[in-house]
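Hi there,

I know you've been waiting on this one. I reran it after we fixed the sequence typo, so this is the corrected version. Both the input and the resulting structure follow.
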Amino acid sequence: MTELLPLDPYFVLGVSREANDEEIRKAYFAKVKENPPEKHPEVFQQVRKAYEMLKDPDAKMRAEAVTYRMDPAAAMEAVSEILEKIPAPPDPRDIARREILTSWIERERESLRREW
C-alpha cells in the first residue's frame, strides 16, 4: 500500500504550485482512480483532504502559507539563494600574501622615512 505523508496538498495531488483549478481537478480524479477508497482508504483520505484544501480559495491560501515552509524543494531553493549571497571565505594563501606584502610595504616606508 502506498502511504503519503500529510505534507503539501500540491505534493499529494502531484501538481505544481502554478496548477490551475482544472489541472488540480484532473489530478484529483486521477489520484482517486489510482487509490480508490475501498483499496487504499488512508491514501484516499489524504487525496480528498488535499483536494478540499485546494478547491476552496481561502483554504488554498492558508495551505500555501503553511506548506511553503514544508516543501523541501522550495526550502532548498531558498537556502541556495541565501548561500549565493554569502561571500566565499578568503583563501588563506591570499591572507598570507597580503600580510607579507603589507609588512614589506611598511618596512619600505620606514626605510624611506629614515633616508629623508
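Quick highlight: Helices lie at 9-13, 21-34, 41-55, 57-67, 72-85, 92-115.

Best,
R. S.
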